[in-house]
Design a protein that fits this description.
With 502 residues, the chain is α/β, with parallel strands linked by helices. The protein is 30% helix and 25% strand. Among the domains are: 144 residues, Rossmann fold; 96 residues, ANL, C-terminal domain (GMP Synthetase, Chain A, domain 3, 2-Layer Sandwich), CATH 3.30.300. The chain contains 15 helices and 24 strands. Strand 18 and strand 19 form a beta hairpin. The termini are far apart.
Length: 502
């Protein structure tokens, strides 16, 4: 049941065919990637790694980074990707909780990783930069490319990704080989992927969207990729004409629309644009259709589940919806008592299927709390289902902010701000933003006798938070709005500042 077996079967056929071409013109064949993957697997095993060991990776996007992921699958190891922008205090918990056997990091973070590794006795730390160079790639070069793929059961772990909660500690999401394979096979079929497809891959690969969704659709069909280390409108304008598919977050599409040079001349070979990781505005859907001639296919997924719903490849794509539940996924809307609501009524979205993760790492009680007795996962999203079965996400019951397609949990940011000198308390919330979808905003109450500068709050936050979590605007307020029970009313704050970035 090893997910890599399915990938390997495809790549071994016509092994000299191109798989990836980077924006600098480097070409990698299927056999190139298989050989690199084999060498990485051999090296990790030479260190003493064994099936189930976690491999923590905090590096920038590169072909070598992708091969580490594939090597973890091949060797039955557990891939543990971390956003490269995470700061020391964020990484400290992830490492302490995951207890990896090996850490691979950017050279600039080597001293930090050594410091964090000492208390938890991690002996193997290697560097890998954004060009794929470093201690790790040097060590791998001398290893054999021959390695027999390790047998795995369907519920054996393939990846461990963390999703912080609005309260309490970050949660490790355990994704199995079966989770990844069944969801990938479903998307390949539902979105019509074949070996004729060429994907413009501009997404990061520390995140489900770029790592599992985008890569899997190509690796399981024998398609090809134009590979960019990041998204820029210039990359899209240059390379989209040779591609058939592009996957992105709403921010990508709003930035393309703001680029005067983008238009139908770039989309003549395209068959599919998809959007996810954040809500796609109806205006963006309509404006992109008018400019490009294509309707963006919006879908809905989570780290815990992969993809759950999708507008159809052939059929009506309803703007403002994420489409029906995918084949093999059951979605339902329930009220506070767990009873299914009527069509068109708002309630809590629950999903069930082989795509859904098996639980939180070392948190059995939290796992039990987030699943119903009949096996449905509580997504934390509020939604409605229409008469055609199309799901619309209308809110989030957990106050999560999605900025540029990345999740920001207010409590994480509040904990950092509240520790700053001169801060009495804070409330962090999301406000609509034309580029990012939502921007992080903080209302801060200062200690009366202290002269607090809002710019200082932002600058100090940058040292402790990944950039996408840092507030884009901070306002000093005399007090936070509260209800009779003393709970901060973030809805009032969102309404008050809703036009802040208009």
């Amino acid at each position: 049941m090893n997910f890599f077996n399915s990938i390997e079967n495809i790549l071994n056929s016509n092994s000299k065919r191109e798989l990836i071409t980077t924006v600098d013109g480097s070409v990698y064949t299927r056999s190139d990637i298989l050989e690199k993957t084999g060498r990485v697997t051999n090296f990790l095993y030479s260190l003493g790694a064994k099936p189930g060991d976690r491999i923590s990776v905090q590096v920038h996007k590169s072909i070598e980074n992708m091969c580490i992921y594939l090597a973890c699958l091949k060797g039955g190891l557990v891939f543990h990707p971390l956003n490269p922008s995470y700061k020391e205090n964020e990484v400290e918990y992830f490492l302490g909780n995951a207890k990896p056997f090996v850490i691979i990091c950017d050279p600039l973070n080597l001293d930090m990783m050594r410091k964090l590794s000492e208390p938890i006795d991690i002996k193997h730390i290697y560097t890998l930069d954004s060009y794929g160079n470093g201690q790790f790639s040097d060590a791998v070069k001398s290893c054999s490319s021959s390695f027999n793929t390790v047998s795995r059961n369907k519920d054996d772990l393939a990846a461990l990704l963390y999703s912080s909660g609005t309260t309490g500690l970050p949660k490790g999401i355990m994704l199995t080989h079966s989770n990844l394979l069944t969801n990938a096979e479903c998307l390949v079929e539902y979105w019509g992927f074949s070996e004729k497809d060429r994907l413009l891959h501009v997404l990061p690969i520390f995140h489900v969207h770029g790592l599992f969704v985008a890569l899997s659709c190509i690796l399981l069909t024998g398609g090809t990729m134009r590979w960019a280390d990041k998204f820029t409108p210039n990359y899209v304008n240059q390379y989209l004409p040779e591609c058939t598919v592009m996957m992105g977050v709403p921010t990508y599409y709003t930035r393309l629309l703001s680029n005067a040079g983008f238009g139908k001349k770039h989309t003549q070979n395209i068959r599919l644009f998809t959007s996810g990781s954040a809500p796609l505005l109806v205006d963006t859907f309509n404006n992109f259709r008018d400019r490009s001639g294509f309707e963006i296919l919006e879908r809905y997924g989570m780290t815990e589940t992969g993809m759950n719903c999708s507008n159809p490849l052939v059929g009506v794509r309803k703007p403002g919806t994420v489409g029906p539940a995918l084949p093999g996924v059951t979605a339902r809307i329930v009220d506070d008592f767990g009873e299914i609501v009527n069509i068109g009524e708002v309630g809590d979205l629950q999903v069930k299927g082989d795509n859904v993760f098996i639980g939180y790492w070392e948190m059995p009680e939290k796992t039990k709390e987030d699943f119903t007795k009949d096996g449905f996962f509580n997504t934390g999203d509020q939604a409605i289902i229409d008469n055609d079965g199309y799901v619309s996400i209308v809110g989030r019951s957990k106050d999560m902010i999605i900025s540029g397609g990345l999740n920001v949990y207010p409590k994480e940011v509040e904990d950092v701000i509240d520790m700053l000198e001169g801060v009495k308390e804070s409330a962090v919330f999301g406000v609509n933003h034309s580029d990012f979808g939502e921007a992080v905003v903080a209302a801060v109450v200062k200690v009366k006798s202290y002269e607090l500068d809002v710019n200082s709050v932002i600058e100090q936050s940058k040292g402790k938070l990944a950039n996408f979590k840092v507030p884009k605007y901070v306002e000093l307020v005399k007090e936070l709005p509260r209800n009779t029970m003393g709970k901060v009313q973030k809805k009032q704050l969102r309404n008050k500042y809703k036009h802040l970035f208009d």
